[in-house]
Amino acid sequence: MSGRSSAITDEEINELVSKLQSLLPESRRRRSAGRASASKLLKETCSYIKSLHREVEDLSDRLSDLMATMDSNSPQAEIIRSLLRP
């Protein structure tokens, strides 16, 4: 094992917080007002991830409802299936 400690430095934390802040829509808008605390930023991140999860669930439900009303052999159904394939 190298002589380097596995502990993360303050500089690394600051860099990671800055990167995280750049990914959050609300934080990007506020960026000019200064950097948020790491604690506040982590709370915002959790909230944003939860909202994305709710949005995915809602879109999935809407897609399921749409597929249920469609003829499974229709061109539209085939397009949707092709978009969902990996």
Description:
GO terms for molecular function: protein dimerization activity. The protein is an all-alpha fold and 86 residues long. 72% of the residues lie in helices and 0% in strands. The chain has 4 helices and no strands. The protein has helices at 10-23, 25-30, 38-69, 75-84. The longest helix is centred in the middle third of the chain and has 32 residues, at 38-69. The chain starts with 9 loop residues before the first helix and ends with a helix. 2% of the residues are buried.
How far apart are the termini? 40 Å
How many alpha or pi helices? 4
Q: For the CA atoms, what is the radius of gyration?
A: 21 Å
Helix percentage range = over 70%
| Largest sheet composition | none
* Unreliable residue stretches: none
What percentage of amino acids are in beta strands?
under 5%
Order of helices and strands: HHHH
Pfam family, one: bHLH_ILI
InterPro entries: HLH_DNA-bd_sf, PRE
Keywords: Growth regulation, Transcription, Transcription regulation
GO molecular function: protein dimerization activity
In a nutshell, what does this entry contain?
Helices cover 72% and strands 0% of the residues. The protein has helices at 10-23, 25-30, 38-69, 75-84. It is elongated.
